Amino acid sequence: MRLYLTALNPTDSVTNGFLPAARALGCEVTLLTDQPERHPGVEALRTDVRDVRSVIDTIARHHPPEAIFSNSDHIQPETALAADYFGLPRKDWCACLTAKNKALTRDRLAAAGVETVWSVRLAPGDPVPGDLPYPVVVKPREGVASEDVVLAVDGGELARVVEDIRSRRPGATLVAEEYLEGPLHTLETLGDGRALHVLGGFRTTLGPLPHFVEERLDWHPPDPAWQEHVLRALTAIGVGFGACHTEYVLTARGPRIVEVNYRVIGDTCDFLLAEMLGVPLFEWILRVHLGEPAMTPPHAAGHSAAVSLIAGRSGTIQEAPGDVTDTIQGVRLCHRPLRPVGETVELTRTNRDYLGIVRATGPDEQAVNGAIDAFRARSPWVVE
Q: Whose CA is closest to 59, among 88, 23, 24?
C-alpha cells in the first residue's frame, strides 16, 4: 500500500506518530513537502504542497496511491482535493476550507442556526471599525499556535493591535470578534464519513491576558450538553472524516466554538490522548484514510495532563532536561524538549515560547500533579 503524506515543517505528530504508524500498517510511505531536506529517514519528494496541481502531478508520475493524508493545518483542502482526484477516501475540501478560515466558520455556524458570535473581517488596508462591542479578540483569519491573538479592550488598543499585527503580516486578513469569556475546553473526534466518534476532551488553562497562550491541558470528558453542541457545529461545517480537534468556551449562554482544527490535537497531546485511551491512535486515523471504518474508542479511566514549560524571559537556554520517560508512583511521565541548550529565546507571547512539554498519565489528578511538580523541581529549564 502506498501512502502519500503531505507536510510542511517537521512535527512530532508526523515524525514520531504517523510515519511509524504507517510502517506498522505495512504502508510504503512517500512524503510530499516543500522542505524534503528537513525530513530525513523517509522518501521525500519536493512538492509545492500548497498547490493541489503540483501535488496531483507529483503523485501521478510516481506510484499509484492507496491513501493521501495530511496532519497540517495549512494544506488540508489541497490534500483533500488531491485524494478526490484519485478517488480515495478523503475529507470534504469545503469543510477543510471552512474550518481553517475563522471567518467562514462563524458564517457557517450562524447560517446553520448553531450559534452566533459577533465577528468582523479586516482585510489588508481596511480601516479599523469605530464602534465595536468591546472587549474583542483580534486574530489572523487563518492563524495557528495563538500567534498574534490579542485581546483589545477599547478602540485605541484595537488600532494599536491591528497595526502591530499588520506590520508582521502585511497581506493577512484579520478577524475581530466577540470575546468569549469562560472555561476553555476541547473535543477530540474521529470519523469515517458515516460515524463520528468522540475520543474525549481536555480542559485548557491559558496564560494571562491579553494573550492566549495555552499553558496546560487536563483530561476532562465533555458534559453531554457541551458535546451535543460541538457535534452540531461540526455537522454544520461538514466535519466527519478523520481526526478533528475543536476548541470551545463554556460561556454564560452555553458552549461557543473558538476554532475547529481539522486534524488531531497537537503539541504532543496526541500522544497523551493515545496513552489515555490505550489505543494506537495514529494507526486508527490512518486506517480511516485507507478506507476502513473508524474504531469505537474505549472508556478512559484515570487522569492525564500536558504542561507546557514556557520561557518567562528572553535569553539563552543554559540548562534543560532531555527526553525523559519515567514512572513515578504509578504515574507515567514523559518530557519532550522542544529547544536545545544554547539556543536564544525571544519571547513572542504565543505557543512558540514553549521550551518543553511534560505529559503525565496516572490513576487520578492528585497523583499526576505530584509527579509533574516533582519532575519540574528536579529538572528545571534555565534561561538567562
A: 88
Q: What is the pLDDT of residues 158-192, one digit of tens each?
A: 999 999 999 999 999 999 999 999 999 999 999 99
pLDDT digits (tens, 9 = 90+) for 114-131: 999 999 999 999 999 888
Kind plus residue range of the DSSP H or E element containing 259: strand 254-261
- Give dist(CA 343, CA 316) in Å, integer: 6
Strand blocks (E) in 213-252: 214-219, 241-251
CA 288 to chain centre: 19
Query: Is residue 20 classed exposed, middle or buried when 0-12, 13-18 and 19+ CB atoms within 10 A define those classes?
Result: middle
Give the three-class secondary structure for 370. helix
Per-residue confidence (pLDDT) for residue 328, from 0 to 100: 86
Question: Three cell numbers at 266?
Answer: 497537537
Residue 165 to residue 145: CA distance in whole angstroms: 15
Q: H or E stretch including 361?
A: strand 354-362
Torsion on CA atoms 323, 300, 24, 35, rounded to nearest 10: -50
- Bond from prior residue into 133 cis (ω within 30 degrees of 0): no
